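User: Can you predict the 3D structure for this chain?
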Amino acid sequence: MCIFNSLDEFAIGTVDTGNSEKPRSVAVHPTKRLLFWTDVGSRQAVIRAKMDGSDSMVLAIQLEGVTSLAVDPISNLVYFAHGKKIEVVDISGKNR
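Assistant: Here is the predicted structure, written as structure tokens:
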């Protein structure tokens, strides 16, 4: 997955999603410069990385049909939908 600068469309970093990941929903925490996405591949997860592609980490795993996510930059929370649930986790992957 390539991350583009919205002003001039030059790539500013690359996140290696691996062979098994299928990124779907994407959200950005603008002040912390973090990128979040859902993996709808074999492991069904919510993942986070810095905008330069470094420090990738899984925030939530073992989900059922993860479909969407949203980031609240004020409270530093990530909301995501899977199955028939909406869940929340903080941006460090705690307090799910």
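The CA atoms of residues 47 and 58 lie 4 Å apart. The chain has a mean pLDDT of 82.
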